[in-house]
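Tutorial sheet, problem 5. The two components below are modelled jointly, 667 residues in total.
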Amino acid sequence: MVVNPVAEEPPTASPSSGDGVAASGVWRRFGAVEALRGVDFTARYGEVTGLVGPNGAGKTTLLLVLATLLMPDAGTVRIAGHDPVTETRAARTRLGWVPDVFGVYDNLTAREYLNFAGAAYGLGSRAAARAEELLSLSRLRDYADRPVHVLSRGQKQRLGFVRSLVHEPRVLLLDEPAAGLDPYSRVELRDILRRLAAQGAAVVVSSHVLSDLEQLADRVVFVDRGVTVGERRIDDMARAPGPRMWRLRALNQSELVTALDLHNYPHADPTPGGVDVELVSDEAAAGLIAGLVRDGVHVVSCAPLTGSLEATYLELTGEQG
Amino acid sequence: MKGILTVARLELTVRIRAGRWRWLLAGWFVVLVVFTALLRVALSNATGLDGDRGTVMYGGLQLFLLGLALLVMPALTAQSINGDRERGTLGVLQVTELSAFDIAAGKLLAAWGTACIFLLVSAPLVAWSMVEGGVPVIRVVTVTFVVALLLGVICAISLGLSALLSRGTTSSVLSYLCVFGLTVGTLILFGLVTAATTQTRVVHFSPPGNNVPAGCCNSTENVERTDLTWWLLAPNPFVVLADAAPVTTQQPPTCHNVTTGASTSTYCTYPAQNGVDPLGDISRSVRSLRAPPALAVGPNLSPRRGGLVWPYGLGFDVLLGGFMLTVATRRLRTPRRKLARGVRLA
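Model answer (structure tokens):
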């Protein structure tokens, strides 16, 4: 794949005020381990920004720095224009954070938990009304007066997520939010996050589930070994040139194989899931489908085997030995 | 203040709903009832008890209650911060608008409130001993206040330790060691230091007559300088409790000055104690430690008793509690620069 070297450049060093999150040159060391070695990261208002990288790349450490819990050793960080170190409180009022692992107070009810979160953000008399809104948003209204420990893992996850929205933050940080969610809840989470971004929030999501991010994020920042290794816009990535595996399925598989052989398309051995073909571009795929239809092959589906995000991820993070 | 109350209310709600807490409270009450009833039966059989039975009952009950409370409090508080961290509820609390002090003070307030509930449960037994007579209201008010303050100090120490140490078991063990240090440790230290600083002094006396042989009339004696070491005992919660309790009834001592050479000391005769008073007895013995060593004078003459001990002890304990609250606050402050090994922030 041809890589545009300009896109490899980290985001601009000076954080602009239009960014919900602007971090540049962030270093953080734990004893002998350098978890962050000059990470650059920005997240714009109105967009969902994905944070992607292998285990131990520093994603959680970066999110802890952004969430005002860890002090960076070096570098500048702005959350909604505020420095989390010197203007901690101002940053916190504008910030929602969902850690990868979190507990809820087992003996509280869902409603009490949200009421408490509202009080902790100084909502005062508005806390109760806000709790009701969030109970509806998380579809936990039926469980509002049940103790939290009767909730399923996914329901607790949803409760923890809406807790982070209690003070209507402009910046939302989520660490692996989809972990432990069933497919329906994932789709729902995606819809809520898209809606929040549409309302103007800057949403940051770290995730390993690249297929989820592909449908959720506007932009993805790749982090590896404590540094930013690249960033892409999802729509750019989908159009990026380069050969990729596509999977074809037809009503009659032997018909399909015959047609591919006829037109000299190299392909893998057919499997019950379909036949894999390497194609150089979207245009090539469109051309192949048109050709197959002309030949009378009943094509059922033709889709890229690996997402463009996964391909980029492997390319950016996998090659370093 | 609003933030502190928010945290305290949450902590109390969570505590009260946890089942084990109710059982602990019930067990606590049963033990106190059994103790008081047994004490009452023992007193009705006792002979040579001139004073009011209530004085003994109340004193015994308060000392027993304090001892029991010192054992229970660390269990209730020693994991309040590192336990939250392990359960993953601390980080989401820290990113809110609550300050580190709100969280620390709120947790302390909840723990202290719990301690006060334990105290409140003993109210019927206190009333019982008051009915038996010899327990003035001022004594009950003062002692209750002092016990509450002491339990608050223990809560603050446990809280500070739970912020300092990442493992709940370690902070629990250390909290109990602190309680041990304050109670038994102060006694041991006082005993050892007093023994180590015992002085030998030479006493001259002049026998009547002029024919005094050389080397005559000197004798050596060992003098314990408790007037220099009494403060080691002061932080002991039992000493503070007993010494702070207002004395029931006491005739003033008759004092007069004795001049030995150039120095003049005051010696007093104390009237015989009317009946047994556990708190008063402890108080009298620790106050007498503050007096300078006695001369070999008449059996009823003893040096004027030293001053109060409890203000020093309680002052030290409250300062210690305040220090541990500061430690907890500092430990909860975010963003954090240093992170203890193996500690997960969220």
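Marking note: The first strand of chain B starts at residue 199 and ends at 204. Full credit if you identified this.
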